Amino acid sequence: MAQQTMTPLTRRALVRGAAGLAALSAAGARAQGAAQKPPAGQPLDGGPLHLVVPYPAGGSTDRAARLLADAIGPALGVPVLVENRAGAGGRLAAQQVHREPAGRNVLLLANPAPMLVAPLVQKEDGYNPQTDYRPVSEITRYAFGIAVGPAVPVQAFGPLRGWMQANPEKVSVGVPATGSLPHFFALMLAGQLKLDLPVVGYKGSAPLLNDLMGGHVPVAVDTLDALEPLHRAGKLRILATSDERRSASLPQVPTFKESGLTLSASGWNALFAPASLPAPRLQRIAAAVERAMADPAVRKRFADADLVPVGSGPAQTARMLDAYRAQWTPVIRDSGFKP
Length: 339
Prior knowledge:
The chain is α/β, with parallel strands linked by helices. It contains eleven helices and ten strands. Strands 1, 2, 3, 4, 5, 6, 7, 8, 9 and 10 form a ten-stranded mixed beta sheet that branches. Helix 2 (60-76) crosses helix 9 (279-294) and helix 4 crosses helix 11. Mean pLDDT is 87; it is low at 1-38.
C-alpha cells in the first residue's frame, strides 16, 4: 500500500486560507444582516402603509402626518397614505385602527385626547390605549399659551392676573374643546391662581380665536401653533407659555414659571401601532421613523410648518406616555369632567 504524503502548508498558503475564511465569514455576516435588516428600497411586507389621522385635514396632527409620510416612504419602499378619519374627538379612528386586520399596515397618529383623556372620562371606548396599541414614536410636541384679545387692557401676564382678580365677573377662559388638554391646563391655571374661572369650550380653535379677537371671550388657552400666527399679526397677545423653556419662535414671551407659577405642561402627537401589527414590521417602521426624524432637512420642514419635531424610539415614547399619565390623570379625574 502506497504511503500517502502531505505537502507542508507554506506561510503563503496559510495566509491565503485565512483570508478566504475571513471573506466567507464576512459574506455570511452580510447575508445574515441583510436578512435581519432589509435594504431601504425593499418593500415593506404587507403593502402600503396607511397613516390614520383622527382629525380633519389642515390641523397640526394632519400636517405632521403628511410630512412624516413623505419622509419615511422611500425607506419603506411602499406608499404611505394619510387617511383622515375624524369623529368623536379622535375616538372613532382609535376604535377603527385597533380592529384592522392583522395583515394590514396601519398606524394611528394621535394626540392625548383619544389616547390619554378619553379612557379616563369615557365609560366604554371600545379600545384600550395601553393594551390594544404599541407606541412607535413621539413625532411632535407642542406647548400651550394664554392669550388675550384687544378688549383686555394688559400687555403681560402679571397685569392679567391682577385684572382677573379685580374683575371676576368679566372673566371666562375659552378653550378649543371641552375635554382637551388646553381645557385641563386652564383648570390647572385656575387652581394656581386661586380663581374660579369659568371654562368655555368651543368646537375648534377657529371659532375660539374669532370670539377672542371679537371680544366675546376675554381670555383663551390654546396650543401655541394655533395662537402664534394671530399673535404675529397683532390681533391677539400671547402673555405666557406652558413649556419649561421659552418657545424658540416666541423668545420674547415668558413661561408661566418665569411669571411666578409652578406650572408647566405640553402636548404631543405620537405614532401608535395596533397590537396586531407583526413585530418585524413594527421594528422596521420604527427604525425608518427614527432615522427620518433625525434628518436635519426633515426637522427643518417640520419647523417651517410651525411644528416642534421630536422623533423618539418606542421605548423612550413608552416612558414619555407613562410620565404624561402620571401628570395628567389626577388633574383630569379631580376635575370631575364628564363628556
